[in-house]
Structures are given as C-alpha cells and as structure tokens.
Design brief:
The chain has 147 residues and is α+β, with helices and mostly antiparallel strands. It folds into 2 domains: 73 residues, Double Stranded RNA Binding Domain; 55 residues. The protein is 41% helix and 16% strand. It contains 5 helices and 4 strands, in the order E-E-E-H-E-H-H-H-H. Strand 1 and strand 2 form a beta hairpin. Helix 3 packs across helix 4. The longest helix has 18 residues.
C-alpha cells in the first residue's frame, strides 16, 4: 500500500552511507554502518511521515522507483499505512477531527492517537474511521519480490 523507495550511496570522504528518498527529495538519512542502512531509512521516513501528519499536510502516494542496485523498498507496518490513509482521507474529505471523533463517539484526544504513527492503535478502530469517511479497507498478502 505505502511502499516507498530509497537510494543509498557510499560517500568515501565521510565514510558514511547517504540515504535519499525517491518520494521525499528534501529528506536524507546518514549511517556509518552498511547493516544499518534499511533501519535508518525506515526511522527517517517514519519521522517524516509523523511530521507531515502533525503539520496536516498530505502524504503522497509512493512513486514507482527507478531500478538500480542502490535502490531498495521501505515497507511500512500495516498500522502505519492505515494511519496515513486516515490522515489523507481526513484532508481529502475536509473533515474536522472533532467531527470524526463525534461520529465515532470518542474524544478528540483519541483521534490524535489514531493519527500518531508511533502509537499502537487498534486496526478495527482505524477501519471504522476510514469507513465513516467513505473508504473501505482491505489487506492483501503476497509473496515478496524484493530480497
């Protein structure tokens, strides 16, 4: 659903791996250990997504990555994908968070937690929120094509 791609390049002068994101050209990650590249990329991406949600800006759908040996996918947890979808749905439908909270019979603070990418929300509550905004959810499981 939300599989973003990153590129990594080794910068010899600094002895560091520089991580750039295909869909977010303004953000960058750096690590000094090759084994930490994917973890660093995920952490930087999650922080960026959390910031976009906090600032109430839309999160773009991932673009198709250009294939090369330095490009790799960053898979987001299902909960994070649902939270991004909910955030984008709220923006797209121009729904006030307090209005969604009323429809769900919960308080405004609970809506904020539903949108907190680091908070472990319940999938059924996210599904209900999306449904109330006019969206259906489904989970697809398929064999991974990237190693």
């Amino acid at each position: 659903m939300f599989t973003y791609f990153a590129n990594v390049d080794f910068v010899e002068e600094e002895g560091a791996y520089e991580i750039n994101f295909c869909d977010f050209p303004d953000i960058q990650g750096v690590t000094f250990c090759k084994e930490d590249v994917e973890l660093e990329a995920e952490e930087v991406l999650m922080a960026t997504l959390a910031e976009l949600i906090t600032s109430r800006r839309p999160i773009p759908a991932p673009l198709a990555a250009q294939s090369n040996e330095n490009t790799f996918p960053i898979y987001l947890p299902i909960l994070s994908c649902l939270k991004i979808a909910l955030h984008n749905a709220i923006l797209e439908t121009k729904t006030l968070r307090i209005d969604l909270a009323r429809k769900m019979n919960i308080n405004a603070q609970q809506i904020e937690r539903l949108l907190d990418i680091h908070y472990a929300s319940k999938i059924d509550v996210l599904e209900q929120a999306l449904y109330l905004l006019g969206y259906n959810t489904q989970v697809t499981v398929q064999k991974r094509i990237y190693s």
